[in-house]
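[Solved] Which block belongs to which protein?

Original post:
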Amino acid sequence: MDKEEAISKNILLIVIAVVAVIVIGAVIVLVLYPPHPDVVPQFSANVETSGNIVYLYHDGGDPLYQDTTIIRINGLAIPASSAVFLHGQDWPWTAGKTLQVTYPGTDPVQLVQVIYSSGSTQELVYSTEVQGPQTTPIPISTLETQVVSPTATAIATIPEATGPIETIATPAGPAVPQPPVPAFTASPLSGESPLQVRFTDLSSGIPTSWIWNFGDGSSSPEQNPVHTYSSPGVYSVALTVGNAYGTNTRTINDYIAVGAIPQANFVGTPREGAAPLTVQFNDLSSGSPDSWIWDFGDGDQSTLRNPSHVYLNPGSYTVSLMVANAFGSNTRIQSNYARITETVTHNIYLQNSATGYLVPDGYLQFVVGSPAGNIKIAGHVYQFQEGDKVQLFLGDVPAGEIDVASSGINTFYFDGVRMYVNGILVERGTVSSINVPSFDGLVSTFSIQIPPGDNSYTLFVDERRVIPSTGDFATFSDLRQDSSGRMYYIQKVGTLTYVGGAGGVQIG
């Protein structure tokens, strides 16, 4: 009997010990992992933004748990699992901890809300309108944290989508630590090399380190460095600033322009000859000019880099060239640079050449008088203005017709014409008619060539009959009006006729 009582007592003690262990374990679990209170938490917070990054600082009140917390930014729900704590902290979210949330939208952050979600219940526990990012964070060590006792008025039901959202005011708290925001200026921004530039740091957020990249392979750790650019060019500048919370970089592309004032120089060929003389001018300037102004000394100018100019009248002409770029201008003047002599015009009568042709790529030039007249090109009538300088360029010309008299330009019929007016290409195509009653300064670079073996044509030069030999090659250059003011050219299939003037005649 005594033995049975002893066994019963031992079993009872074992049961009591097991129960005690279970109770103690439950207490430990409750202490270490307390259950979420099924009451709406009440707390206050402070919000700061940096671009699309939102910092939420728990400023006092109840803890919040990951599985019952939803954050809304501009009405967009962001799960608490997408938020991270600064300084390696973790849930629950208690006073003194800062959450960093990335807003995936493109609009500025304007409204931040914290939602308590439990089952089918969702309650708004915090809401604030963001006025804009604080550009200069306030050091935490200079502020005292204000803890506000939770009250029932801090809770609001989530409003319907069509109704206004209640904003709960919160007391100001310390700014969330964040990297500095870089900004800078420089002076001067352009000039001749070597160019010394002073850079000034304007960054906010209390940076403690600076790294400048000047774009020419050089850098500096100084806050306000002075840098000398020794080579011409356009340079982008970058500044990286940092502090204990990170770094940021700002780059300004093509910020510093370093160069030199160009030095004008040029050449023209030929420099001497009979009028009309076409001179090709070529720019030889140094220093990378980007604009040119030529003065040919006869009243005409050009802004082309390498222009061609026709001198119509005899004389000595002073030529100047002004070149410029962003750093300044320079002018070169050469006196008596072009010498134009009196021209000799030969009267030509050429009829029925079987193989003669007009050499391609020549042009007819004249200045429109009054009344002005017009031309029909590419199916359109172009009305000239008094004083227009007109150039009619030909390409390959198997056939065509010109009729110029002292009474005006009456015919110009060719395909593939390029028409320039005052140096500007205004039209290209077939010219079917022209009527210019008054003109001045008519010249051309047209030439007629007759290969050897053509014995079918009749030729008079200055009223004297010329009979070429079988092996002669005939060239009539610089076609123009003859002594009577006539210039008539017509070419059809198998026949060419010309009655007019020529600056040069070569047979042989």
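(Second protein starts here: sequence line, then its structure tokens.)
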Amino acid sequence: MASIQTKSAEADKLAQEGDLSAALLEYSAALKLDPQNVILRYQAGNVLRQLPILAHCLAHGGRVYAAACSSDGKLVVSAGDDQTARIWDAITGQPIAVPLQHDGAVWDVAFGPDGRRVVTASEDKTARIWDPSTGQPLTAPLRHAQPVTQASFSPDGKLIVTACQDSTARVWNVATGAAVMTLRHRDAVLCASFSADGKSIITSSQDGTARIWDSAGRAVTHALRHDRAVWKAALSADGGMAVTASDDSTARVWNASTGEPLTDPLKHGGPVLDACFSPDGESVLTASEDKTACLWQVSSGKQTVPPLKHDGAVLRVIFSPDGASVVTAGSDSTVRLWSCATGRAVLPPLRHSDTVAAVAWCESGQLLTASWDGAARVWNLQTLRAYPPALRHDDSVEYAAFSHDGKSAVTGSWDKTARVWDSATGGAITGPLQYADQVQFAAFSPDDRMVVATSYSCPAQLWDAATGRALPIRLDQNLVRCAAFSPDGKRIVTAGNDESARVWDAATGKALTPPLRHDGSIVWVAFSPDGNALVTASSDNTARLWDPATGRLLVPPLQHAFFVVGASFSPDGKSVVTASQDKTAMIWSVASGRAACPALQHDDGVTAAAFSHDGRLVVTASQDQTARIWDAATGKPMGPAFPHEGAVLDARFSPDGLLIATGCEDAAARLWNVATAELLVPPLEHSLSVRHVAFSPDGQWLLTASWDKTARLWHVSPTNWEPREVETFAQIQSSSRLDNDGERQQIPVDQLAALLKSFAAGRPEVYQLHAPSD
């Protein structure tokens, strides 16, 4: 039997490769050996919260080739090798009516626009029109001379077009089942569909051409020619362009009125099997046997992001309804969701047990997939971590902090506002707290009743945290960059670009000391835990320790060789750590002002430094693309550096000291195992730099602030599920289980459906469909 270490190592490897469902299987196996292992519980919890949820497994008796959702999102239809199409309730996953029976495999299926009819295309040389509520045919079979490969409705639902291996596409009257016209090619017709306005039809064929036809069945242009079979042809939403995908390893974009090419051929390294336009018609997505999908700009014919890679042929591609992401499906048994802006994976792969033949969006925001493993699946793409939604501003978010009770969060943004949020729901508690300039800092008072926020060109302002009302307390200092409350909440210190810090009575705004002077801007200020000392960090290359009662220096300035960008006290208040652009952090004795140990050395500027909650360790973040942990007593590094892919801008310990969180210029926050310096889970992604990270007081949540105009709340606590529950959930998500030798074995889809049903009954909260988050 494999050891905990072996299982954990394999899980870590799979998680870093992005195969989270398989990773969760290995974590669950390790958890069964050591159920109380907190790090394993952290890892399992953070992985399971990132997985899209398999909501329904709709089992057939053979390969499933096609699936579709009704326009109202209430029904799903799937079709396959078992010679049936089947109607399912999209909410419950239960079958509706009897199977729609053919005499051969059913290769395609579609709902009519109003959801009251279904059309199926079959190997038995017919297409058929059905009532989905009863499973009964509504007309006589629509007969061809060879197998029918595809069928679809016109936008008004009055016509159907079928594609057939008899070298024809045919148009049929839905009400009567009568043939209206025949569109001829020289070889098998592989696809046929209507334009969005219903005035045109586009077909593609094994004869190496695609053709566009008007409503009378006349060719609109000359044939759109390739050198080999054309597997797919589609029109843009406005009908002005066509895209074709061919066995000749190219896709091509055409003027739909003239038939002239609009770009050079879009080249792949193997046959191109699918292609479609983005909703706005500005991009084309292609799928190829070369194991990639590619996103192309129509105007230039150039790729906009690197190829989207699978481990096998990519068979199907679609855009999301808003055009922000794309879905790819392939012979590697996965479906993948990608960002159109970055080309990065948005979610972990959706695992199946065989080739995925079809994908479709549902009105609910769920994704429908069909696989040769014998099932269609319905996925909830909103993971257990995906709520609350993003805390959204209109410009970069520079800072974010939790309230001391963890129930609220405050953010400061370059949109000239601070905002207070409910950390449980992500909803705004107050309206925007308006400033005349960019807000770069915000924090709660110790009793959480007030918020202070600072802006470059104006005084700091105190606000009622519950109502957003500006409090009539004037803190008479301009150019303020940072502020801090004393631990008892009776004093507040502000500091900024006027080269001074000032201590105020938090109730009246009365100055309590003379200005605390530096020779440069003060960028950070903090009280000691007992409130008897202040530390300020300045661009004059020093940090300084002050008596907040008198405004006098406690010790000589703490000298660095370049700007000091941050400073914080140890939990016992006896030490302070400073972070500097001179490539070092320093730990100082508060009593003497002397360095307590050698400098904590990086290879570039240090951006942040903080003590662990027991004071034994210090974490530093640096522009050298690492974070590091140090022994606070000796200054010696505790293990290897934590590598990143850009400057590390912030780093903080979790309350239990087992984790650190980092925010990075590479647009991600990361959770790390302090003991091993290894990533706990894959990066928590934003779309621009992550400026600040903060754990909630109970360690359950991580708050990240980013230049992408959002702050986000991430559920990062250890799972409280039993190991058996983690194992079952992993089996459902991966469609596999571990045998006695630790090898992954596929679960038959009928068993998978039963396992899902049983687990959902015990954990119904997992399967509640929340409103999609951004």
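Accepted answer:
You had them paired correctly. Confirming on the second one: The mean pLDDT is 95.
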